[in-house]
Specification:
37% helix, 8 strands, Rossmann fold
Length: 289
Amino acid sequence: MSSMPEEIRRALKEMGPGATLEMNVRSKAMFAPLVEPVEGVVERLDQAYGDHPRQQFDVYAQPGASGAPIVIYIPGGGFSGGDKRQDETFFRNVGRFFASRGMVGITANYRLSPEVSWPEASQDLAALVAHVKAQAASFGGDARRIVIFGHSAGAAHVASYVFDPDLRGHDEVAGVILASGLYVLRQEELRPNVALYFGEDEATFARRSALSHVPGTKVPVLLSVAEFDPVSLATPTFEMAIALTRRDGAPPPVLRIDDHNHFSCICGIGTKDERFSGALLAFIASCTP
């Protein structure tokens, strides 16, 4: 049963499907007061994993943490925006939530278009994971128990990092969470912000689509969509589910987050509405025993 306040549930339903800036702003404003305070979490902000100002991450952990699973969250932003710490609430809520559950929570930035193009943001994730693995003990984490979690454009970058044959992130992490991302490129569906990062040459689309490279990988994957995701960010999840089913001979876990839109599902992490966060914890526990 939903623990979302009824007035917020109604407001999200009235907004309907979409992923506009206005929906982003309204969703964050509604959910910010619902994020529960977390005490006793140590924050290490703006840690560098490269020389570029965007190549930074924040670490959240309990004092004295040792050998804990590590969850790395990669936020969205339409390929040209977004930030690990947009304000005092988001996406601190994600890092603090995982830390409060005995894990090391990491939220990270990556370089943006138009400054970079495919596959440079996913190359940033490769550098990030390598850095985190090397420093895991100093954060209180276990380098063998890393789960990487991407949302929207962040999920697209995570999928490229995990599945692309040149990056092979599936060999480096224990599990993957892909929430409402873009995993396949098609000319008729190419939005301007997507073209800015991936390019407009249709001859390159198969190579640059993470969906093309699922066969031969082994890493566990949790997929999710929000009830009010736009069609363009919902259908790729089910195409990814088909590819993973063919890879594994069994379907992956696929979660539809009822009552939520593209933004509110992440904003709800750390609130009393645990339909998404509870599923995340269960999946992470299955990958990082």
